[in-house]
């Protein structure tokens, strides 16, 4: 996957280049669709970056490509790192400090997702998503805390909007993201006096992601799109722009909140409504043999 | 610990006796302070009950005492059951069906708590609370699902209010309870078409509990109390009454919501405000050597 | 319109008769569909009642019918009272105290509604709904405050769920009900120390009301119904039951919150989703000549 | 009052100059403390502006001063305009279009405030705040709608955080701002398909404003400040920066949400907690002769 943004993006951007000069961002899931573009924007605007993931080749390749975005940019790919293991994240943070000198910004973006009704969502599957999304986010902040404290840094959790209402087929992700929002708020309160800010960004339906391309059945796409007030899918670039704002000096008094970037979509576009088969599919699946 | 309620409670209760006759309630944490009294009220009003916990003697003793509340009441104590293990809950549910005939109502009440700032809250400690409160609640519903589906039952999660704002020293419980609220809402949507209701009850500061007696420093108690608009602590009986309402026929159209029973306390009484030492204590603890 | 409830309701009710004996409830909109049944339940359970409205005959007739529900029940109809005029409400409260002896409970239920997109909703029309729903509710509490204070009474605002998301064609009611929720919370905080509780009840889609029968186009009804997780419309009786709970001793620690009674409907059934014509209708109407 | 910002601000700003070149912003309350600085930033970044208020001299003087910020900037002061009168706003909008050519952005900022407990807050006083804040905001959008529609413009309501919990002495503003949030969300849904975005900005405690300087008693200031996690008051510049983000192309997918800029303050700093006299003062004032 090549870069989504290019140096041209700087021309049309409302932000000045160099606003993140000398800063370092640490991004779990930074080789993934959305978080990669958040990172690309940060790099274009002067930051160096460490992107964290499990797959070493994918992570390394993405890092190499992203380093092309800005002359002199340093981007390291830290593979073989599972956010469920705090020790592996500590190693990643240590390597980042060693190679890039510091950590100023942390993006907790690593997450898993798939669709399942409750009856077919095993306890293990539920646990797996909670572990990656919620515990993994906690571990990430833990591992970066010494640097965040030293540099009066800033944390951004990648959340979602699906728990604002009660979306079907996503109990696991809803619970995980609601937990993340609460964690972010509590950290904003606890770490504020240490000079650290904590916020969430909640993307709506973003084009080109697994969530839309793989999980949303093709025949529901048109209806789903029409229900988004903005009448377009989100772009990864929209999330990147929100990220830049939150980390920038312009938002130095923004903490303990969520930047929702969804074209007003959550107000209108819940899962049940999009889904031509509510409640039939849930009744059918709910009557299956229970899965533990 | 003897029973909190007694047959006399029926006289002053606004509810008719026998409204839960022939019904069975399955309660994790049912030997604990709050959930025990929820269960006592259900028993007094006609239900049989299974209470679930890890400590076998404590659980058995509570069950025996509670069985005294109503002539003919059947109450079983299912010890050696950890809500983190779905299989142990399945066994508990099967024993309940075998001995009590059915399950109509499920209370997910088992939970852990302690105070810690972020810096001293290890990844493991955070995980432990998420596992008991959030994963444990999921597992409980999983284990009871066949019965809930058959009997068009009703689920009640015991949540809290502390994640409505961003309370310090409670990142773990805040994240867990926020996750539970989202889970409850998602289940209300998914299981509604199967005839199952799902709700939360959110107690405020309840007198006689660990939360107030052990966790709230004595010298903050008077100020904390004065900040509760109702000007009194909650009683376990208040939570029991809310529980009865939610499970009763009177609430047959109530699903996907939270019954807050807190004397309007959360609007005024957040942790930082009560805490004479905000932000000093957080700054001091935040400057300690980080704990993983 | 005859009574919806009858003395038979007492037999199936979970509540004991007489729980409101000696109490008086003051209800604006008490001759309307929902609030009338709230009042009927209170009367059946022992309360006397004053129902308030503009149309004198309608109000009087309803009062006379409702007085039949319980031998000895006193129900007065106070017509010619517009909630937009605090003085007319003061007169209504004074008459209530004079004829019924006291006021313990207040239901702020009077409201107006109609559908309109923003472009066709004049400033005056918007103001009219805000004035009846929000200012009218404030005025009602004002007029009853001396009695509420004396009797340590309880306030119930009839709110809605439509502002939890962003429903189209209802900007006016959304704004009004959101204002009411905030008012209720602030009063819970302010009046709690005086012994007064303040709460909201939020009905979902209730069968037999103007909202469903007149405002919801017939061809959208089946889809709308299927999107409610409970798979049925709400009944006025459901709202009556929630009302009884909130005013009863069982809820003496419930304040500053909203009892949602909607079959989990708001999580799934927003207006845009129900509406086969989103966004087409809004685009067409938005392109009309603006109306002031 | 001189300008708060100066051309130097452009140097340290993260935003590129000229991003609002050729655009026009229409600001009610634009001569007031916060909204003036929002407007100053927009002007510095290329916009022309119309500021609206009742006092003609104050409004004109502010406009003249603000025009000094950028060579070529056009800023008109439209006095004698009360947001409670939609017709006076229509005249203001027409003058703006005549003199500045167009309207792209609307800031609904005009508001009134004062402290009062419920017992001393007359129906008229409550109505007055609702009329300025909520009805006035509606009227403002009404008057600018033809231009917003033509130019695919963007609306920003100046809200607050005090209704997120239940602050005492502010029932009127809480209800008004909650209404505004709901209005903004509903407009985001309705006007999204016309290409119009609608959002709120919620300032925390901003230094130098009436809210902090006049309304917060001096002896509560230190405690109040310590309870803000960021450990500083907000600056008008913080709100200006959030405003720039929301109106900029960077936020083109941001609609139907609130940008909270409060240093995480609302999570910790509610009015009751700050107030050494809760609940005593409310009890005393609540026992006074009721005021209608
Ligand atoms: N897609 C949407 O429309 C949408 C909407 C709302 C919110 N979001 C959120 O946005 C974020 C990014 O979503 P996306 O669709 O761009 O994701 P994605 O492309 O699926 O990427 C996920 C990334 O997370 C990494 N990851 C997953 N599990 C991990 C683990 N255990 N340890 C370390 N890294 C792990 C993956 O790398 P490895 O596999 O190499 O580990 C991958 O790089 C997520 O938090 C998602 O919940 C997305
Ligand atoms: N206390 C308050 O004021 C307050 C306020 C808001 C919410 N709440 C919530 O109310 C509920 C009850 O609180 P409480 O103070 O009454 O609790 P408690 O007295 O501490 O009782 C907790 C119960 O949970 C059981 N439990 C804990 N971990 C378990 C596990 N892994 N597996 C099975 N059972 C387990 C315990 O039994 P074993 O040790 O034998 O397993 C015990 O019976 C909790 O959900 C709490 O979060 C309390
Ligand atoms: N229908 C639903 O599904 C639904 C859903 C959510 C919430 N709600 C809420 O539930 C409540 C009752 O709804 P409903 O459908 O039962 O209402 P309804 O039948 O239309 O009755 C409204 C009542 O309010 C009175 N009223 C209206 N304006 C008044 C004024 N200015 N002064 C005094 N009284 C006034 C009317 O009497 P007069 O005309 O004689 O004055 C009438 O008795 C309302 O607050 C509504 O917003 C309804
Ligand atoms: N101060 C804070 O810390 C804080 C916190 C949260 C939110 N806010 C919100 O931020 C906004 C600005 O607050 P501020 O403290 O900067 O206000 P401010 O200095 O008091 O200015 C208010 C402005 O509104 C105008 N205005 C008032 N009533 C009007 C009417 N009926 N018609 C037309 N214009 C009217 C006033 O001009 P004329 O008198 O000439 O009409 C004045 O320019 C308000 O919406 C406020 O609620 C403030």
Automatic annotation (TrEMBL), chains A, B, C, D:
Name the Gene Ontology biological process terms: fatty acid catabolic process; fatty acid metabolic process
Keywords attached to this Swiss-Prot or TrEMBL record, sorted alphabetically, are: NADP, Oxidoreductase
Pfam families linked:
adh_short_C2 (PF13561)
Matching entries from SUPFAM superfamilies are given as: NAD(P)-binding Rossmann-fold domains (SSF51735)
Which superkingdom?
Answer: Eukaryota
Matches recorded under InterPro entries:
DECR2-like (IPR045017), NAD(P)-bd_dom_sf (IPR036291), SDR_fam (IPR002347)
One CC-aspect GO term: peroxisome
Which GO molecular function annotations are given, in alphabetical order? Answer: 2,4-dienoyl-CoA reductase (NADPH) activity
Q: What is catalyzed by this enzyme?
A: a (2E,4E)-dienoyl-CoA + NADPH + H(+) = a 4,5-saturated-(3E)-enoyl-CoA + NADP(+); a (2E,4Z)-dienoyl-CoA + NADPH + H(+) = a 4,5-saturated-(3E)-enoyl-CoA + NADP(+)
**Entry EC number(s):** 1.3.1.124
Family matches, as PANTHER family: PEROXISOMAL 2,4-DIENOYL-COA REDUCTASE (PTHR43296), PEROXISOMAL 2,4-DIENOYL-COA REDUCTASE [(3E)-ENOYL-COA-PRODUCING] (PTHR43296:SF2)
Please identify the protein, giving its name as recorded.
Answer: 2,4-dienoyl-CoA reductase [(3E)-enoyl-CoA-producing]
The protein's organism comes out as Yarrowia lipolytica (strain CLIB 122 / E 150) (Yeast)
């Amino acid at each position: 996957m090549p870069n989504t943004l290019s140096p041209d993006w700087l021309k049309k951007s409302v932000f000045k280049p160099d606003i993140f000069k000398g800063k370092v961002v640490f991004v779990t899931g930074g080789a993934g669709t959305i978080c990669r573009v958040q990172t690309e924007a940060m790099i274009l605007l002067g930051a160096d970056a460490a992107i964290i993931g499990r797959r070493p080749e994918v992570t390394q390749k993405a890092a190499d490509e992203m380093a092309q975005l800005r002359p002199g940019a340093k981007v390291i790919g830290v593979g073989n790192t599972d956010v469920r293991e705090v020790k592996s994240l500590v190693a990643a943070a240590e390597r980042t400090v060693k190679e890039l000198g510091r950590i100023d910004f942390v993006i907790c973006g690593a997450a898993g997702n798939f669709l399942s009704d409750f009856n077919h969502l095993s306890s293990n599957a539920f646990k797996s998503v909670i572990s990656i999304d919620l515990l993994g986010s906690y571990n990430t902040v833990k591992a970066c805390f010494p640097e965040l404290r030293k540099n009066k840094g800033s944390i951004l959790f990648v959340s979602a909007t699906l728990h604002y209402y009660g979306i079907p087929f996503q109990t696991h992700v809803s619970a995980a993201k609601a937990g993340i929002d609460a964690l972010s708020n509590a950290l904003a309160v606890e770490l504020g006096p240490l000079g650290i800010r904590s916020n969430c960004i909640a993307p709506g339906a973003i084009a080109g992601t697994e969530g839309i391309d793989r999980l949303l059945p093709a025949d529901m796409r048109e209806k789903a799109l029409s229900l988004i007030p903005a009448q377009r899918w989100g772009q990864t670039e929209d999330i990147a722009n929100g990220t830049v704002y939150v980390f920038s000096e312009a938002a130095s008094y923004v903490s303990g909140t969520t930047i929702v970037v969804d074209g007003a979509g959550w107000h209108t576009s819940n899962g049940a409504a999009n889904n031509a088969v509510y409640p039939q599919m849930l009744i059918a699946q709910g009557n299956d043999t229970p899965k533990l």
